[in-house]
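Run log, item B.
One chain of 517 residues. Sequence copied directly from the ordering sheet:
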Amino acid sequence: MSGIKKLAGQTLWYGVPTIVSRFLGYLMNMALPFFVAMPSKTADLVQVYTIIPFLNVLYAYGMETAYFRFSQQKDKTSLYSTLSISLLASTILFSGLLWIFRDSIISAADLQAHPEYFGWMIAILAVDNLNTLPFARLRQENRPKHYALARVSGILLNLAVVIAFLGFIPSIVEKNPGSAWAMVYNKDIGLGYYLIGNLCGSLFTLLLLSKEISQVRIRFDKVLWKEVIRYSAPLIIVGLGGMVNDVMSRLIYRHVVDLPKGQADHELGVFANVFRIALLITIMIQAFRMAAEPFFFNQSNNEQAPRTYARVMKFFVIACCFMFLMIGLFLDVFRWIFTELANPRWAEGLHVVPLLALGNIFLGIYYNLSIWYKLTNKNLYGALITIGGAIITIALNIWLIPIWHYAGAAVATVACYFFMMLASYKLGQKHYPIPYPVKKLTAYMVLVVLIYLVHLALVNWVSSAYWFSLGTGAVFFYLFTRFVMRIEEKELAKIPVLARFLPKKNAPNSVDAKNEK
Protein backbone atom coordinates (compact mmCIF):
# COMPACT_ATOMS: atom_id res chain seq x y z
CA MET A 1 0.00 0.00 0.00
CA SER A 2 1.37 3.41 -0.92
CA GLY A 3 2.20 6.04 1.69
CA ILE A 4 -0.69 8.22 0.50
CA LYS A 5 -3.16 5.37 0.94
CA LYS A 6 -1.84 4.73 4.46
CA LEU A 7 -2.28 8.38 5.34
CA ALA A 8 -5.78 8.36 3.85
CA GLY A 9 -6.68 5.38 6.01
CA GLN A 10 -5.29 7.01 9.15
CA THR A 11 -7.04 10.27 8.31
CA LEU A 12 -10.30 8.35 8.00
CA TRP A 13 -9.91 6.75 11.43
CA TYR A 14 -8.34 9.60 13.35
CA GLY A 15 -9.46 12.55 11.29
CA VAL A 16 -13.18 11.82 11.10
CA PRO A 17 -13.64 11.80 14.91
CA THR A 18 -11.76 15.10 15.03
CA ILE A 19 -13.94 16.53 12.27
CA VAL A 20 -17.09 15.32 14.02
CA SER A 21 -16.06 16.59 17.46
CA ARG A 22 -14.83 19.93 16.20
CA PHE A 23 -17.84 20.36 13.94
CA LEU A 24 -20.19 19.69 16.84
CA GLY A 25 -18.26 22.20 18.90
CA TYR A 26 -18.41 24.59 15.96
CA LEU A 27 -22.20 24.20 15.75
CA MET A 28 -22.43 24.83 19.47
CA ASN A 29 -20.49 28.08 19.11
CA MET A 30 -22.50 29.03 16.05
CA ALA A 31 -25.63 28.60 18.16
CA LEU A 32 -24.67 31.67 20.23
CA PRO A 33 -26.72 34.02 18.01
CA PHE A 34 -29.81 31.95 18.87
CA PHE A 35 -29.18 32.05 22.63
CA VAL A 36 -28.09 35.69 22.85
CA ALA A 37 -29.67 38.58 20.98
CA MET A 38 -26.73 40.99 21.12
CA PRO A 39 -23.12 40.06 20.27
CA SER A 40 -21.76 42.25 23.09
CA LYS A 41 -23.15 39.77 25.65
CA THR A 42 -20.65 37.15 24.49
CA ALA A 43 -17.50 39.30 24.84
CA ASP A 44 -16.36 37.82 28.18
CA LEU A 45 -16.92 34.26 26.97
CA VAL A 46 -14.92 35.04 23.82
CA GLN A 47 -12.16 36.43 26.03
CA VAL A 48 -11.96 33.21 28.08
CA TYR A 49 -11.85 30.99 25.00
CA THR A 50 -9.15 33.27 23.63
CA ILE A 51 -7.00 32.79 26.74
CA ILE A 52 -7.42 28.99 26.89
CA PRO A 53 -5.31 28.18 23.78
CA PHE A 54 -2.39 30.21 25.17
CA LEU A 55 -2.46 28.37 28.46
CA ASN A 56 -2.94 25.00 26.72
CA VAL A 57 0.49 25.46 25.13
CA LEU A 58 2.13 26.10 28.50
CA TYR A 59 0.29 23.21 30.13
CA ALA A 60 1.33 20.70 27.42
CA TYR A 61 4.78 22.19 26.56
CA GLY A 62 5.23 20.05 23.43
CA MET A 63 4.83 16.66 25.13
CA GLU A 64 2.51 15.25 22.46
CA THR A 65 4.92 15.87 19.58
CA ALA A 66 7.82 14.69 21.72
CA TYR A 67 5.96 11.46 22.46
CA PHE A 68 5.59 10.74 18.74
CA ARG A 69 9.22 11.65 18.10
CA PHE A 70 10.79 9.56 20.88
CA SER A 71 8.45 6.59 20.64
CA GLN A 72 10.36 5.66 17.49
CA GLN A 73 13.60 5.09 19.43
CA LYS A 74 12.88 4.80 23.19
CA ASP A 75 11.11 2.28 25.40
CA LYS A 76 7.47 3.27 25.05
CA THR A 77 6.40 2.22 28.53
CA SER A 78 9.13 4.25 30.21
CA LEU A 79 8.52 7.20 27.88
CA TYR A 80 4.75 7.20 28.49
CA SER A 81 5.14 7.00 32.26
CA THR A 82 7.85 9.65 32.44
CA LEU A 83 5.93 12.15 30.33
CA SER A 84 2.64 11.43 32.11
CA ILE A 85 4.18 12.06 35.54
CA SER A 86 5.76 15.23 34.22
CA LEU A 87 2.42 16.47 32.87
CA LEU A 88 0.58 15.64 36.09
CA ALA A 89 3.10 17.53 38.24
CA SER A 90 3.18 20.55 35.93
CA THR A 91 -0.63 20.63 35.68
CA ILE A 92 -0.91 20.88 39.47
CA LEU A 93 1.80 23.55 39.55
CA PHE A 94 0.37 25.70 36.76
CA SER A 95 -3.20 25.44 38.05
CA GLY A 96 -2.05 26.44 41.54
CA LEU A 97 -0.18 29.47 40.21
CA LEU A 98 -3.17 30.59 38.14
CA TRP A 99 -5.42 30.34 41.19
CA ILE A 100 -3.00 32.27 43.40
CA PHE A 101 -2.77 35.13 40.90
CA ARG A 102 -6.40 34.92 39.75
CA ASP A 103 -7.36 38.44 40.85
CA SER A 104 -4.58 40.05 38.83
CA ILE A 105 -5.31 37.91 35.76
CA ILE A 106 -9.06 38.56 35.95
CA SER A 107 -8.38 42.29 36.09
CA ALA A 108 -5.90 42.19 33.19
CA ALA A 109 -8.32 40.13 31.07
CA ASP A 110 -11.21 42.50 31.91
CA LEU A 111 -13.34 39.65 33.32
CA GLN A 112 -14.53 41.42 36.47
CA ALA A 113 -18.15 40.97 35.41
CA HIS A 114 -17.74 37.18 35.37
CA PRO A 115 -14.90 36.15 37.72
CA GLU A 116 -16.45 32.67 38.02
CA TYR A 117 -15.43 32.02 34.39
CA PHE A 118 -11.80 31.94 35.49
CA GLY A 119 -12.22 29.05 37.93
CA TRP A 120 -14.06 26.94 35.36
CA MET A 121 -11.36 27.77 32.83
CA ILE A 122 -8.62 26.44 35.12
CA ALA A 123 -10.53 23.21 35.64
CA ILE A 124 -11.00 22.76 31.88
CA LEU A 125 -7.30 23.36 31.23
CA ALA A 126 -6.24 20.86 33.88
CA VAL A 127 -8.54 18.05 32.78
CA ASP A 128 -7.87 18.53 29.06
CA ASN A 129 -4.13 18.43 29.72
CA LEU A 130 -4.44 15.09 31.50
CA ASN A 131 -6.18 13.76 28.38
CA THR A 132 -3.29 14.75 26.09
CA LEU A 133 -0.96 11.76 26.38
CA PRO A 134 -3.68 9.09 26.54
CA PHE A 135 -5.01 10.40 23.24
CA ALA A 136 -1.49 10.47 21.80
CA ARG A 137 -0.97 6.87 22.89
CA LEU A 138 -4.17 5.76 21.19
CA ARG A 139 -3.03 7.41 17.96
CA GLN A 140 0.48 6.00 18.19
CA GLU A 141 -0.80 2.48 18.86
CA ASN A 142 -3.42 2.63 16.08
CA ARG A 143 -6.46 2.21 18.31
CA PRO A 144 -8.96 4.33 16.40
CA LYS A 145 -12.22 2.98 17.82
CA HIS A 146 -11.39 3.89 21.40
CA TYR A 147 -9.99 7.21 20.20
CA ALA A 148 -13.19 8.01 18.30
CA LEU A 149 -15.42 6.97 21.21
CA ALA A 150 -13.61 9.15 23.74
CA ARG A 151 -13.25 12.14 21.45
CA VAL A 152 -16.82 12.26 20.17
CA SER A 153 -18.52 11.26 23.44
CA GLY A 154 -16.96 14.17 25.31
CA ILE A 155 -18.12 16.76 22.80
CA LEU A 156 -21.60 15.21 22.62
CA LEU A 157 -21.99 15.57 26.39
CA ASN A 158 -20.65 19.12 26.16
CA LEU A 159 -23.18 19.93 23.46
CA ALA A 160 -26.03 18.30 25.39
CA VAL A 161 -25.31 20.30 28.56
CA VAL A 162 -25.13 23.62 26.69
CA ILE A 163 -28.28 23.06 24.65
CA ALA A 164 -30.19 21.79 27.70
CA PHE A 165 -29.24 24.59 30.10
CA LEU A 166 -29.41 27.43 27.57
CA GLY A 167 -32.13 26.13 25.26
CA PHE A 168 -34.72 23.94 26.98
CA ILE A 169 -34.39 24.03 30.76
CA PRO A 170 -34.91 27.82 31.16
CA SER A 171 -38.37 27.61 29.56
CA ILE A 172 -39.22 24.49 31.60
CA VAL A 173 -38.26 26.21 34.87
CA GLU A 174 -40.17 29.34 33.88
CA LYS A 175 -43.36 27.32 33.31
CA ASN A 176 -42.83 24.96 36.27
CA PRO A 177 -40.84 26.73 39.02
CA GLY A 178 -41.32 23.78 41.34
CA SER A 179 -39.86 21.18 38.98
CA ALA A 180 -36.70 19.22 39.72
CA TRP A 181 -34.84 21.21 37.04
CA ALA A 182 -35.21 24.34 39.16
CA MET A 183 -32.88 22.75 41.73
CA VAL A 184 -29.98 22.42 39.25
CA TYR A 185 -30.57 25.44 37.03
CA ASN A 186 -29.23 28.87 37.93
CA LYS A 187 -30.32 31.70 35.66
CA ASP A 188 -27.42 33.89 36.82
CA ILE A 189 -24.86 31.50 35.30
CA GLY A 190 -26.08 32.35 31.79
CA LEU A 191 -23.41 31.77 29.15
CA GLY A 192 -21.26 30.22 31.86
CA TYR A 193 -23.01 26.97 30.95
CA TYR A 194 -20.76 26.90 27.89
CA LEU A 195 -17.80 26.48 30.23
CA ILE A 196 -19.64 24.07 32.52
CA GLY A 197 -20.61 21.95 29.51
CA ASN A 198 -17.01 22.01 28.36
CA LEU A 199 -15.83 20.82 31.78
CA CYS A 200 -18.42 18.03 31.88
CA GLY A 201 -17.32 16.82 28.45
CA SER A 202 -13.64 16.90 29.44
CA LEU A 203 -14.28 14.95 32.65
CA PHE A 204 -16.30 12.32 30.78
CA THR A 205 -13.47 11.98 28.25
CA LEU A 206 -11.02 11.50 31.12
CA LEU A 207 -13.23 8.73 32.46
CA LEU A 208 -13.29 6.98 29.08
CA LEU A 209 -9.49 7.18 28.98
CA SER A 210 -9.10 5.70 32.47
CA LYS A 211 -7.61 2.46 31.11
CA GLU A 212 -4.79 4.36 29.39
CA ILE A 213 -4.24 6.48 32.49
CA SER A 214 -4.06 3.37 34.68
CA GLN A 215 -1.16 2.11 32.55
CA VAL A 216 1.11 4.86 33.87
CA ARG A 217 3.80 3.40 36.10
CA ILE A 218 5.58 5.20 38.93
CA ARG A 219 8.71 5.28 36.85
CA PHE A 220 10.42 8.57 36.12
CA ASP A 221 13.50 8.50 33.89
CA LYS A 222 15.37 11.76 34.57
CA VAL A 223 17.84 11.28 31.71
CA LEU A 224 15.02 10.63 29.23
CA TRP A 225 13.00 13.54 30.60
CA LYS A 226 15.90 15.97 30.11
CA GLU A 227 16.37 14.75 26.54
CA VAL A 228 12.67 15.22 25.83
CA ILE A 229 12.65 18.70 27.37
CA ARG A 230 15.59 19.77 25.19
CA TYR A 231 13.61 18.67 22.15
CA SER A 232 10.25 20.11 23.21
CA ALA A 233 11.37 23.43 24.74
CA PRO A 234 11.46 25.26 21.38
CA LEU A 235 8.01 23.82 20.65
CA ILE A 236 6.67 25.87 23.55
CA ILE A 237 7.75 29.01 21.71
CA VAL A 238 6.30 27.56 18.50
CA GLY A 239 3.01 26.91 20.25
CA LEU A 240 2.84 30.26 22.00
CA GLY A 241 3.74 32.08 18.82
CA GLY A 242 1.07 30.13 17.01
CA MET A 243 -1.49 31.10 19.62
CA VAL A 244 -0.43 34.75 19.40
CA ASN A 245 -1.02 34.60 15.68
CA ASP A 246 -4.31 32.77 16.07
CA VAL A 247 -6.06 34.63 18.88
CA MET A 248 -4.20 37.91 19.45
CA SER A 249 -6.64 39.93 17.36
CA ARG A 250 -9.55 38.84 19.59
CA LEU A 251 -7.52 39.10 22.80
CA ILE A 252 -6.59 42.76 22.31
CA TYR A 253 -9.51 43.92 20.16
CA ARG A 254 -11.39 45.69 22.96
CA HIS A 255 -8.18 47.38 24.12
CA VAL A 256 -6.98 48.84 20.82
CA VAL A 257 -10.17 49.71 18.92
CA ASP A 258 -11.11 53.34 19.50
CA LEU A 259 -14.75 52.82 20.49
CA PRO A 260 -16.92 53.01 23.62
CA LYS A 261 -16.88 49.80 25.66
CA GLY A 262 -20.35 48.70 24.59
CA GLN A 263 -19.58 49.09 20.89
CA ALA A 264 -16.17 47.45 21.32
CA ASP A 265 -17.82 44.46 23.01
CA HIS A 266 -20.33 44.28 20.16
CA GLU A 267 -17.61 44.25 17.51
CA LEU A 268 -15.60 41.63 19.39
CA GLY A 269 -18.64 39.36 19.57
CA VAL A 270 -19.33 39.80 15.85
CA PHE A 271 -15.70 39.29 14.88
CA ALA A 272 -15.43 36.12 16.96
CA ASN A 273 -18.58 34.83 15.27
CA VAL A 274 -17.33 35.40 11.71
CA PHE A 275 -13.94 33.99 12.72
CA ARG A 276 -15.72 30.69 13.46
CA ILE A 277 -16.91 30.46 9.85
CA ALA A 278 -13.33 30.62 8.59
CA LEU A 279 -12.51 27.90 11.12
CA LEU A 280 -14.32 25.43 8.85
CA ILE A 281 -10.97 25.20 7.08
CA THR A 282 -9.19 24.84 10.40
CA ILE A 283 -11.39 21.86 11.25
CA MET A 284 -10.08 20.07 8.19
CA ILE A 285 -6.51 21.14 8.98
CA GLN A 286 -6.73 19.83 12.54
CA ALA A 287 -8.22 16.54 11.36
CA PHE A 288 -5.38 16.19 8.87
CA ARG A 289 -2.76 16.96 11.52
CA MET A 290 -4.10 14.26 13.82
CA ALA A 291 -3.33 11.66 11.17
CA ALA A 292 -0.35 13.34 9.49
CA GLU A 293 1.97 13.96 12.46
CA PRO A 294 2.49 10.30 13.47
CA PHE A 295 2.41 9.35 9.77
CA PHE A 296 5.23 11.76 8.90
CA PHE A 297 7.42 10.47 11.72
CA ASN A 298 6.77 6.85 10.73
CA GLN A 299 7.69 7.63 7.11
CA SER A 300 10.87 9.51 8.00
CA ASN A 301 13.17 6.48 7.51
CA ASN A 302 11.77 5.73 4.05
CA GLU A 303 13.99 6.95 1.22
CA GLN A 304 10.86 7.98 -0.69
CA ALA A 305 9.65 10.13 2.23
CA PRO A 306 10.30 13.53 0.54
CA ARG A 307 8.25 12.52 -2.51
CA THR A 308 5.46 11.27 -0.24
CA TYR A 309 5.45 14.54 1.69
CA ALA A 310 5.25 16.48 -1.60
CA ARG A 311 2.25 14.49 -2.80
CA VAL A 312 0.52 14.88 0.55
CA MET A 313 1.01 18.64 0.30
CA LYS A 314 -0.54 18.74 -3.17
CA PHE A 315 -3.70 16.92 -2.13
CA PHE A 316 -3.89 19.01 1.03
CA VAL A 317 -3.74 22.31 -0.88
CA ILE A 318 -6.36 21.12 -3.37
CA ALA A 319 -8.67 20.21 -0.48
CA CYS A 320 -8.10 23.64 1.11
CA CYS A 321 -8.92 25.34 -2.20
CA PHE A 322 -12.27 23.54 -2.32
CA MET A 323 -12.97 24.59 1.27
CA PHE A 324 -12.12 28.21 0.44
CA LEU A 325 -14.56 28.19 -2.46
CA MET A 326 -17.28 26.59 -0.35
CA ILE A 327 -16.95 29.41 2.16
CA GLY A 328 -16.41 32.28 -0.28
CA LEU A 329 -18.98 31.34 -2.94
CA PHE A 330 -21.73 30.39 -0.47
CA LEU A 331 -21.18 33.04 2.17
CA ASP A 332 -24.74 34.26 1.62
CA VAL A 333 -25.99 31.04 3.23
CA PHE A 334 -24.48 32.21 6.52
CA ARG A 335 -25.80 35.72 5.89
CA TRP A 336 -29.32 34.34 5.46
CA ILE A 337 -29.05 32.22 8.63
CA PHE A 338 -27.98 35.16 10.76
CA THR A 339 -30.37 37.66 9.15
CA GLU A 340 -33.50 35.55 8.97
CA LEU A 341 -33.16 33.16 11.91
CA ALA A 342 -31.19 35.22 14.45
CA ASN A 343 -30.41 38.93 14.84
CA PRO A 344 -29.24 40.73 11.66
CA ARG A 345 -26.47 42.40 13.67
CA TRP A 346 -24.74 39.00 13.85
CA ALA A 347 -24.27 39.16 10.07
CA GLU A 348 -21.98 42.17 10.35
CA GLY A 349 -18.39 41.53 9.40
CA LEU A 350 -19.04 38.60 7.03
CA HIS A 351 -17.04 40.41 4.35
CA VAL A 352 -13.78 39.54 6.14
CA VAL A 353 -14.47 35.79 6.23
CA PRO A 354 -12.74 35.00 2.87
CA LEU A 355 -9.62 36.84 4.07
CA LEU A 356 -9.59 34.80 7.27
CA ALA A 357 -10.14 31.61 5.27
CA LEU A 358 -7.19 32.43 3.01
CA GLY A 359 -5.04 33.03 6.06
CA ASN A 360 -6.03 29.63 7.44
CA ILE A 361 -4.96 27.99 4.16
CA PHE A 362 -1.52 29.55 4.59
CA LEU A 363 -1.50 28.26 8.18
CA GLY A 364 -2.36 24.74 7.01
CA ILE A 365 0.44 24.80 4.46
CA TYR A 366 2.82 25.97 7.18
CA TYR A 367 1.81 23.02 9.36
CA ASN A 368 2.68 20.70 6.48
CA LEU A 369 5.99 22.44 5.88
CA SER A 370 6.94 22.38 9.57
CA ILE A 371 7.72 18.66 9.42
CA TRP A 372 11.25 19.47 8.24
CA TYR A 373 12.41 21.02 11.52
CA LYS A 374 10.69 18.37 13.63
CA LEU A 375 12.42 15.57 11.70
CA THR A 376 15.84 17.24 11.75
CA ASN A 377 15.65 18.27 15.45
CA LYS A 378 15.89 21.94 14.44
CA ASN A 379 12.86 23.08 16.41
CA LEU A 380 14.63 26.35 17.19
CA TYR A 381 13.98 27.39 13.59
CA GLY A 382 10.28 26.78 14.15
CA ALA A 383 10.45 28.98 17.23
CA LEU A 384 12.14 31.79 15.30
CA ILE A 385 9.56 31.59 12.51
CA THR A 386 6.65 31.82 14.93
CA ILE A 387 8.32 34.68 16.81
CA GLY A 388 8.58 36.54 13.51
CA GLY A 389 4.92 35.81 12.83
CA ALA A 390 3.95 36.96 16.31
CA ILE A 391 5.76 40.27 15.83
CA ILE A 392 3.89 40.82 12.57
CA THR A 393 0.58 39.88 14.19
CA ILE A 394 0.98 42.19 17.17
CA ALA A 395 2.25 45.14 15.13
CA LEU A 396 -0.40 44.91 12.42
CA ASN A 397 -3.26 44.37 14.87
CA ILE A 398 -2.26 47.41 16.92
CA TRP A 399 -1.87 49.45 13.73
CA LEU A 400 -4.80 48.26 11.62
CA ILE A 401 -7.64 47.42 14.05
CA PRO A 402 -8.18 51.11 15.02
CA ILE A 403 -8.34 51.95 11.29
CA TRP A 404 -10.14 49.04 9.61
CA HIS A 405 -11.64 47.20 12.60
CA TYR A 406 -12.51 43.61 11.50
CA ALA A 407 -10.72 43.98 8.20
CA GLY A 408 -7.55 45.14 9.94
CA ALA A 409 -7.48 42.01 12.09
CA ALA A 410 -8.11 39.85 9.02
CA VAL A 411 -5.28 41.47 7.05
CA ALA A 412 -2.94 40.91 10.00
CA THR A 413 -3.90 37.21 10.03
CA VAL A 414 -3.20 36.78 6.31
CA ALA A 415 0.12 38.65 6.48
CA CYS A 416 1.34 36.66 9.48
CA TYR A 417 0.54 33.21 8.08
CA PHE A 418 1.89 34.10 4.64
CA PHE A 419 5.21 35.08 6.22
CA MET A 420 5.36 31.89 8.27
CA MET A 421 4.53 29.73 5.26
CA LEU A 422 7.15 31.41 3.07
CA ALA A 423 9.86 31.41 5.76
CA SER A 424 9.31 27.74 6.58
CA TYR A 425 9.45 26.78 2.90
CA LYS A 426 12.70 28.66 2.26
CA LEU A 427 14.46 27.29 5.35
CA GLY A 428 13.07 23.82 4.84
CA GLN A 429 14.44 23.57 1.31
CA LYS A 430 17.92 24.31 2.68
CA HIS A 431 17.86 21.79 5.53
CA TYR A 432 15.46 19.08 4.30
CA PRO A 433 14.67 19.51 0.58
CA ILE A 434 11.23 18.28 -0.49
CA PRO A 435 10.13 18.48 -4.17
CA TYR A 436 6.90 20.40 -3.66
CA PRO A 437 5.05 21.32 -6.91
CA VAL A 438 5.22 25.00 -6.00
CA LYS A 439 4.09 26.45 -9.35
CA LYS A 440 1.05 24.21 -9.59
CA LEU A 441 -0.03 24.81 -5.99
CA THR A 442 0.43 28.57 -6.36
CA ALA A 443 -1.67 28.48 -9.53
CA TYR A 444 -4.48 26.65 -7.73
CA MET A 445 -4.57 29.18 -4.89
CA VAL A 446 -4.44 32.18 -7.23
CA LEU A 447 -7.22 30.66 -9.32
CA VAL A 448 -9.62 30.16 -6.41
CA VAL A 449 -9.03 33.72 -5.21
CA LEU A 450 -9.78 35.03 -8.72
CA ILE A 451 -12.93 32.89 -8.89
CA TYR A 452 -14.09 34.35 -5.58
CA LEU A 453 -13.40 37.92 -6.73
CA VAL A 454 -15.26 37.40 -10.05
CA HIS A 455 -18.22 35.96 -8.15
CA LEU A 456 -18.16 38.88 -5.71
CA ALA A 457 -18.12 41.35 -8.61
CA LEU A 458 -21.10 39.64 -10.28
CA VAL A 459 -23.11 39.71 -7.05
CA ASN A 460 -22.33 43.40 -6.48
CA TRP A 461 -22.81 44.59 -10.08
CA VAL A 462 -25.46 42.26 -11.53
CA SER A 463 -27.72 41.04 -8.74
CA SER A 464 -27.46 40.61 -4.99
CA ALA A 465 -30.38 38.16 -4.85
CA TYR A 466 -29.70 34.97 -2.94
CA TRP A 467 -30.70 32.75 -5.88
CA PHE A 468 -28.24 34.52 -8.18
CA SER A 469 -25.40 34.41 -5.65
CA LEU A 470 -25.88 30.71 -4.88
CA GLY A 471 -26.51 29.78 -8.52
CA THR A 472 -23.39 31.45 -9.88
CA GLY A 473 -21.43 30.09 -6.92
CA ALA A 474 -22.53 26.56 -7.76
CA VAL A 475 -21.49 27.03 -11.41
CA PHE A 476 -18.04 28.32 -10.45
CA PHE A 477 -17.58 25.50 -7.95
CA TYR A 478 -18.50 22.91 -10.61
CA LEU A 479 -16.12 24.45 -13.16
CA PHE A 480 -13.23 24.41 -10.70
CA THR A 481 -14.00 20.79 -9.82
CA ARG A 482 -13.90 19.78 -13.50
CA PHE A 483 -10.67 21.74 -13.98
CA VAL A 484 -8.93 19.98 -11.09
CA MET A 485 -10.15 16.57 -12.25
CA ARG A 486 -8.74 17.23 -15.70
CA ILE A 487 -5.36 18.45 -14.44
CA GLU A 488 -4.98 15.74 -11.81
CA GLU A 489 -6.70 12.88 -13.65
CA LYS A 490 -3.63 10.60 -13.53
CA GLU A 491 -3.31 11.07 -9.79
CA LEU A 492 -7.03 10.76 -9.15
CA ALA A 493 -7.22 7.59 -11.22
CA LYS A 494 -4.98 5.91 -8.66
CA ILE A 495 -7.61 6.51 -5.94
CA PRO A 496 -10.29 3.79 -6.24
CA VAL A 497 -13.12 5.96 -4.88
CA LEU A 498 -12.45 8.72 -7.42
CA ALA A 499 -11.35 6.56 -10.34
CA ARG A 500 -14.94 5.55 -11.07
CA PHE A 501 -15.74 9.16 -12.05
CA LEU A 502 -12.94 9.21 -14.64
CA PRO A 503 -12.80 7.60 -18.10
CA LYS A 504 -11.42 4.06 -18.03
CA LYS A 505 -8.53 5.04 -20.28
CA ASN A 506 -7.12 7.17 -17.47
CA ALA A 507 -6.70 4.26 -15.08
CA PRO A 508 -3.07 3.72 -14.06
CA ASN A 509 -1.17 0.99 -15.83
CA SER A 510 0.69 -1.73 -14.02
CA VAL A 511 3.96 0.18 -14.10
CA ASP A 512 2.38 3.21 -12.41
CA ALA A 513 0.76 1.02 -9.82
CA LYS A 514 4.04 -0.72 -9.13
CA ASN A 515 5.86 2.59 -8.70
CA GLU A 516 3.28 3.72 -6.17
CA LYS A 517 3.93 0.78 -3.86
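Observations after the first pass:
- The radius of gyration is 24 Å.
- The first helix runs from residue 3 to 30.
Flagged for discussion on Thursday.
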